[in-house]
Amino acid sequence: MNLLDRLTDDMKAAMKNKEKEKLSVIRMVKSSLQNEQIKLGRELSEDETLTVLNRELKQRRESLHEFEKANRDDLASKLHGEIEVLQQYLPEQLSEEEVIRIVQETIKEVGATSKADFGKVMGAIMPKVKGKADGGLVNRLVQQHLS
């Protein structure tokens, strides 16, 4: 079952169970996926679907950070719920130790020796961890290991 089918099934279940918040998030995600399909003019691959999901999650995390800075706990708690719903559709996230191991292996693979090789390392790592690790974490770890 692909992600779009799973979202449709979960949307139906959320309607039956009157889970308004979950229903709202699923509808937003489905809308984003359909907009991306229209933009590309074809069905989305699993990688493209994950990219859209990650983009939605990243937007919510950034908004959450801003709401917390502004002491808007009401909006922050709503976003926490949305983030939890979105995370159900992403693959299981790698631990920081697993990401560190991947970073070290990739640095050896590309022969990186300094911060000048940062782009080369990031370009090689991101396809390996796509959807499984936060880009900010990967970025920070690569910088640490190259300095």
Query: Mean of the pLDDT scores?
Result: 87
Radius of gyration: 18 Å
Total count of helical runs of at least 4 residues: 7
Low confidence ranges? none
Q: Which structural class do the helices and strands define?
A: mainly alpha
**Number of β-strand runs:** 0
| Cα distance spanning the termini | 44 Å
Work out the strand percent.
under 5%
The major β-sheet equals: none
The helix content is over 70%
The ordered H/E elements are HHHHHHH
- Which term fits the overall shape? globular
What is the secondary structure topology, with strand pairs?
Blueprint: H1 3-16, H2 20-40, H3 46-69, H4 73-87, H5 96-110, H6 118-129, H7 135-146
Helix pairs in contact: 1-2, 2-3, 2-4, 3-4, 5-6, 5-7, 6-7
Can you describe this structure?
The structure is a single chain. This protein has 147 residues and is an all-alpha fold. Helix content is 77%, strand content 0%. The protein is built from seven helices and no strands. Helix 5 crosses helix 6 (118-129). The longest helix is centred in the middle third of the chain and has 24 residues, at 46-69. The chain is globular, with a radius of gyration of 18 Å. The mean pLDDT is 87.
